[in-house]
């Protein structure tokens, strides 16, 4: 039986899994990586460390297979979508840090563009003009990093999505290519022409000629040679887009919610959704024959909000105590959650988070968890104005392991929330695409269903929270 190597490069670690044709994990390896914050609003990673971590994770996974490593027939790569980096196409060396999706160093400059150009950028890219995406960070690199300017003058500069940098460094052929999902997250890629847009390059003050060429999600990317294997890389995608395929072909009447460091609500469609105000649209699969589109709402303050909570309130090991706290019946205060910048459907990069009402530290912790459910629901509500309403919610990701969060999302949405204990959704999803979409994939029946309860108190808190968020942000969303 042929095996698939799935590489999932995430915020805090690079992971490599080897799975069979049903998605069953046979081997895995993990290598943690660092994330630095040199200044407020900056978030960076070292490109060489990230590349080394991928090779190390693959070597750890392959070493567990023994002689079966020869059965690995293909590989897939899932990468953080909005990370951007500059590198030298002659040497492969990183010329800049990897700018994390969490990096908002250019938010003041982006705010100046929004009033005049925000709508046009959204219609071209499917993205709300935001400092989280790559274009403003590439501009910053060109202005502030001598190595980037020197490579531009020498003609050896390459820049764009982190996924393209990884492909260049991991594969023998050193291809310079970008697939639709990560390319779009630079905010320089036109979702209608499916290529880089000259007007967007001009808007951000970036010279043409240094971006990777556009490539399909699934095709022959090149050859991965490491740890005693030589296999074709057949699929590249963003991590959150790949997660939609974790259980096989996506259901169009289902809302896919992945809750990790950040959280995302995605609806997969086989028809182009058109312009959806205050939401993101794009392509999560293009293989030359089939295109799958998505409409997406995002929540920046998910796992990041829990980390902020632990640091701000000084509560040791918040995640271990949350399950018990979420079972208590005492109503918490409300938390207006703009951690890491307020995302969809409000979109305020400099939103000031705050608690509304008093409470003990444990109550504030519950309020932060409720705010994650409320932000997800605000995106689901807004999305339903433009696409057919969802009939169910499928959740994945580490933070989704909180039963209390899943129950609250079911109650406030009125929809069943279905959870599988699968923290490897992105890896399994990219493996599914790389392996050619096997017919029987990840079909194990172990899933929990959180039926919607009639929790009128929770729904009342959601309505009050929504009114406060709209007032504080100045944005009416539903």
Would you mind describing this structure in some detail?
The protein is α+β, with helices and mostly antiparallel strands and 478 residues long. It has 2 domains: 3-239, Nucleotidyltransferase, domain 5 (2-Layer Sandwich), CATH 3.30.420; 247-423 and 445-473, Nucleotidyltransferase, domain 5. Helices cover 34% and strands 25% of the residues. It contains 14 helices and 23 strands. The protein has helices at residues 47-63, 107-125, 135-144, 146-154, 162-170, 180-184, 198-203, 239-243, 303-313, 318-325, 361-383, 403-413, 425-434, 456-473, and strands at residues 3-9, 13-19, 25-32, 44-45, 72-79, 84-88, 98-99, 157-161, 177-178, 189-190, 195-196, 213-214, 218-226, 229-238, 254-259, 263-269, 280-286, 291-299, 334-336, 354-356, 392-396, 417-420, 447-450. The strands form 7 sheets. A 7-stranded mixed β-sheet has the order 17-18-16-15-21-22-23. A 6-stranded mixed β-sheet has the order 3-2-1-5-14-13, sandwiched between helices. A two-stranded antiparallel ribbon has the order 4-7. It is globular.
Gist of the model:
The chain is an alpha+beta fold and 478 residues long. The chain contains 14 helices and 23 strands. 34% of the residues lie in helices and 25% in strands.
Report how far apart the termini are: 50 Å
CATH architecture of the largest domain: 2-Layer Sandwich
Beta strands, count: 23
Helix/strand/pairing class, anyone? alpha+beta
β-sheet strand percentage: 15-25%
Name of the level-1 CATH class of the largest domain:
Alpha Beta
**Which fold name corresponds to the CATH topology of the largest domain?**
Nucleotidyltransferase, domain 5
Q: Tally the helices: what do you get?
A: 14
Question: How much is the radius of gyration in Å?
Answer: 21 Å
Helix coverage percent of residues? 25-40%
Characterize the largest beta sheet: strand count, sense, and whether it forms a barrel: 7 strands, mixed
Main-sheet strand order equals 17-18-16-15-21-22-23
Instruction: Flag low-confidence runs.
Output: none
CATH superfamily label of the largest domain? ATPase, nucleotide binding domain
Shape: globular
**Number of domains as seen in the coordinates:** 2
If you average the pLDDT, what whole number results?
Answer: 95
């Amino acid at each position: 039986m042929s095996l698939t190597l799935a590489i999932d490069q995430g915020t805090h670690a690079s992971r490599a899994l080897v799975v069979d044709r049903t998605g069953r994990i046979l081997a895995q390896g993990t290598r943690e990586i660092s994330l630095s914050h040199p200044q407020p609003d900056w978030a960076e990673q070292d490109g060489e460390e990230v590349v080394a971590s991928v090779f190390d994770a693959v070597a750890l996974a392959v070493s567990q297979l023994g002689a079966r490593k020869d059965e690995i027939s293909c590989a897939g790569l899932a990468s953080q979508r909005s990370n951007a980096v500059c590198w030298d196409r002659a040497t492969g060396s990183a010329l800049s840090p990897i700018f994390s999706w969490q990096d908002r160093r250019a938010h003041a400059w982006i705010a100046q563009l929004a009033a005049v150009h925000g709508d046009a950028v959204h219609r071209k890219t499917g993205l709300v003009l935001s400092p989280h995406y790559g274009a403003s960070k590439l501009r910053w690199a060109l202005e502030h990093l001598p190595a980037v300017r020197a490579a531009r003058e020498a003609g050896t500069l390459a820049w764009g999505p982190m996924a393209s940098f990884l492909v260049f460094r991991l594969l023998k052929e050193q291809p310079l290519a970008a697939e639709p999902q990560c390319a779009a997250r630079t905010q320089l890629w036109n979702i209608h022409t499916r290529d880089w847009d000259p007007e967007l390059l001009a808007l951000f003050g970036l010279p043409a000629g240094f971006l990777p060429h556009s490539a399909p999600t699934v095709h022959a990317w090149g050859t991965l040679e490491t740890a005693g294997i030589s296999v074709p890389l057949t699929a590249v995608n963003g991590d959150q887009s790949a997660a939609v395929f974790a259980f096989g072909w996506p259901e169009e009447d289902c809302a896919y919610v992945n809750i990790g460091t950040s959280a995302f609500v995605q609806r997969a469609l086989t028809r182009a959704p058109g312009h959806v105000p205050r939401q993101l649209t794009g392509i999560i699969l293009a293989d030359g024959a089939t295109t799958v589109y998505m409409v997406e709402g995002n929540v920046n303050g998910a796992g990041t909000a829990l980390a902020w909570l632990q640091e701000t309130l000084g509560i040791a090991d918040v995640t271990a105590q949350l399950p018990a706290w979420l079972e208590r019946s005492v109503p918490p205060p409300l938390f207006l959650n703009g951690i890491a910048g307020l995302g969809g459907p409000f979109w305020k990069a400099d939103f000031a988070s705050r608690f509304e009402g008093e409470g003990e530290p444990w109550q504030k912790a519950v309020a932060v968890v409720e705010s994650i459910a409320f932000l997800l629901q605000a995106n689901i509500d807004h999305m339903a104005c433009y696409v057919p309403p969802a009939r169910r919610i499928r959740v994945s990701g580490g933070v989704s392991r909180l039963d209390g969060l899943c129950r609250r999302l079911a109650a406030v949405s009125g929809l069943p929330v279905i959870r599988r204990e699968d923290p490897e959704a992105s890896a399994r999803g990219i493996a599914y695409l790389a392996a050619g979409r096997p017919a029987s994939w990840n079909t194990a029946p172990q899933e929990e269903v959180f039926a919607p309860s009639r929790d009128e108190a929770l729904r009342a808190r959601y309505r009050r929270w929504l009114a406060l968020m709209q007032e504080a942000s100045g944005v009416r969303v539903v």
